[in-house]
């Protein structure tokens, strides 16, 4: 395990938000710690913040700061040690024909339509289901760091060549890649686009010669956030130390 170094950041200030209902655990109250000012958080500063458990939503940089709950654990995969399981190997082979293109952040109606379809099927009745174009732009297309969007489209041998299947938002850090958000075609059964996106990002980190893929927060009690434990070895930031998280490991609320 490794201890997180103190952030060498003198211009950044931190404040705690007011309590609000948790999006992941029913009946829980959450708070966040927010880093400001946003214009001072460039690529180098953000790399340090991610290593200390922060994430971003647009230009908003935060980490969980709850009073009585420590369920959210920042995670990363040390890619040199990653070993895909049998299901992940099948997924890698199944979607290997997808063609990828790495792009700068920009709005397209095709992306936005796929995002709306994904939210309506995967996150039905959540607030994100009703995101308008402005909210989508603020959430995914505003960044002060080295961010990219990755398109995944059907290949020439697929029934619908060129069809957009998935979009992943990533940040390229000094020590790896941070997976920001992925949305995909959820209208078909039997696909594993989300898993393939993580595997693709692991491969990209390895090609860049960097050590880590940061996956955001693991929450054992939340089905939407617990899938990350399937990517082993997985490290979690607990008490300011990066340490191995095992599939049967849980945290105290």
Please name the defining characteristics of this protein:
four-stranded antiparallel β-sheet, globular, nine-stranded mixed β-sheet, Aminopeptidase, alpha+beta, 253 residues, disordered N terminus, 2 domains
Overall CATH architecture of the largest domain: 3-Layer(aba) Sandwich
SSE arrangement, N to C: EEEEEHEEEHEHHEEEHEEE
Number of strands: 15
In the CATH scheme, the class of the largest domain would be Alpha Beta
At the fold tier of CATH, the topology name of the largest domain is Aminopeptidase
How many domains? 2
How much of the sequence is in beta strands? 25-35%
Q: Strand sequence of the main sheet, in spatial order? A: 1-15-14-8-13-12-11-10-9
What is the overall silhouette?
A: globular
Spans where pLDDT lies below 50 across 5 or more residues: 1-6
Can you summarize the main beta sheet?
A: 9 strands, mixed
